[in-house]
Structure formats: C-alpha cells, structure tokens
Backbone:
C-alpha cells in the first residue's frame, strides 16, 4: 500500500515544526505530490499537517526514492572523465 500526499494549501505563516514536517514528506511547493510508503511515521506526519495536505490511499508500492550521488563523488567522476579525454587528445 502507498499514500499519495498532495500539498493543497500554502504553508506561509506555518510554524517551523510544520515546515520541517512538510519538507520531511518531500513536498517543496504548493501542488506537489508524493507517493510514499504507508507507514505509521508517514501517517503521523500527514496528520500533523492535515489542514495543508490531502491523503489518498493507492494500491501498489511506492517507488524507491531516487538517490543522487554525493557532490564529491560526482565531481571526482567528472574530473576522471576530463583527464581521460585530455590524455586521448
């Protein structure tokens, strides 16, 4: 099971706790939607900001979150590729 969480109201003037909760749900701006695993933690976070979000239960699993490479690793890979390109020329 998964939960579709959508930010339907502006969080202007919300307390810092609510802002942290909204960020924790992965919502960044008005109208954002996220498909999250249905866990007690996610339900509790959604309950805390229930006046700002809508919840919808969706069948199936939530997709695994995309992970970015840390900046140091990405920079190192670009440097190695650049050096390899320079050595060929």
Residues:
């Amino acid at each position: 099971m998964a939960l579709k969480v959508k930010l339907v109201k502006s969080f202007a003037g919300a307390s810092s706790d609510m802002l942290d909760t909204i960020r924790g749900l992965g919502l960044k701006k008005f109208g954002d939607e996220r498909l999250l695993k249905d866990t007690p933690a996610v339900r509790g976070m959604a309950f805390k900001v229930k006046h700002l979000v809508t919840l919808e239960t969706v069948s199936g699993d939530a997709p695994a979150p995309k992970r970015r490479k840390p900046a140091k690793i990405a920079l190192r890979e670009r440097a190695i590729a650049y050096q390899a390109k320079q050595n060929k020329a």
Summary: The CA atoms of residues 25 and 42 lie 7 Å apart.
